[in-house]
Specification:
single chain; about 300 residues; alpha/beta; Rossmann fold; L-2-Hydroxyisocaproate Dehydrogenase, Chain A, domain 2; 2 domains; six-stranded parallel β-sheet; NAD; oxidoreductase; NAD(P)-bd_dom_sf; L-lactate/malate_DH; Putative l-lactate dehydrogenase
Length: about 300
């Protein structure tokens, strides 16, 4: 079986994702597409020189072909400046997104759409509406990267491997994100026992890391690439991994990051019942932030 992943937008982020997928032999073939066709061809030629380390092959293709892949990753869009929030990108990127999805149609019925472009929660909703795919097949990278950043910060503070920590970030991939401190523990179930002051410092550090990165380079790419690769491998290899990703939540009325199980059929929400009252209140506030931004773009009417 020839497993194909298409990537729309192959600037710094898209090319980093392609490189990550290539080195890990995550699929059999990667198809690159960009509005700048010359860039797509150049990236494919450059990545071709790394194929000797992999079983994966890379080439370019049109948007209709991307729509027929096993997974289509969309990274195209305008990037935030160091003083912009991700939500401020909504208007411009919604226009770009709708055009891309229109050109990708008709979509393969079992296509999995993985949305990377910010604001990822809003654009995941746009992709869900425009693609007409089932909700479990439209996935935003959401707060998976924020969770990785949190675990890295905890690893540095607690001198414990990140892989031995259960600590997750939910909600908006942005300023209103929520850390599930009540359930944070080691993988053996021992509470982390952090003071409120320590929690606040780690939350601030996690939330602001992207802006520290883009103060010195055009955008984030490597962490995004690794987290996107993890999502794709969970789907293609039917791993049943649980990750915090953006998907449609009937309970909260928007696309928002919640724990979800990933398999070959897509993402399946595990709900919000496990959350304690404190985190649940903040999660609902985060959902309201997303819905307010959606309303400004004419995407949410409150019905």
């Amino acid at each position: 079986m020839n497993r194909r992943i298409g990537i729309v937008g192959v600037g710094d982020t898209g090319s980093a994702i392609a490189f990550s997928l290539l080195l890990r032999s995550s699929c059999d073939e990667i198809v690159l597409n960009d509005s700048n066709g010359h860039l797509a061809k150049s990236q494919a030629a450059d990545l071709e020189d790394a194929q000797f380390l992999s079983h994966t092959r890379v080439r370019t293709g049109g948007l209709p072909e991307i729509g027929q892949c096993d997974i289509a990753i969309v990274t195209a869009g305008v990037r935030p400046t160091p003083i912009q929030s991700r939500l401020e990108l909504a208007e411009s990127n919604i226009i770009i997104f709708k055009d891309i999805l229109e050109q990708m149609a008709p979509l393969r019925k079992d296509l999995k759409l993985v949305i990377v472009t910010n604001p990822v929660d809003i654009l995941t909703y746009v992709a869900l509406q425009e693609s007409h795919l089932p909700p479990e097949q439209v996935i935003g990278t959401g707060t998976l990267l924020d969770t990785i950043r949190l675990k890295n910060a905890l690893q540095a503070d607690l001198h414990m491997p990140a892989t031995s920590l259960n600590a997750f970030v939910y909600g908006e991939h942005g300023h209103s994100q929520v850390i599930d401190w009540s359930n944070a523990s080691t993988t053996t179930g021992v509470s982390l026992g952090l003071t409120p002051q320590h929690q606040d410092r780690l939350a601030k550090q996690t939330k602001e890391k992207a802006y520290r990165i883009i103060s010195g380079k055009p955008g984030t790419s490597f962490g995004v690439a690794a987290s996107t690769t993890a999502i794709c491998e969970s789907i293609l290899r039917d791993r049943h991994d649980v990750q915090p990703i953006s998907l449609w939540s009937p309970e909260l009325g928007c696309t928002i990051s919640l724990p979800a199980m990933l398999d070959r059929k897509g993402a399946h929400s595990l709900g919000i019942e496990h959350l304690q009252e404190a985190e649940l209140v903040h999660l609902k506030e985060s959902a309201e932030t997303i819905k307010k931004a959606m309303g400004k773009e004419g995407l949410y009417t409150g019905q």
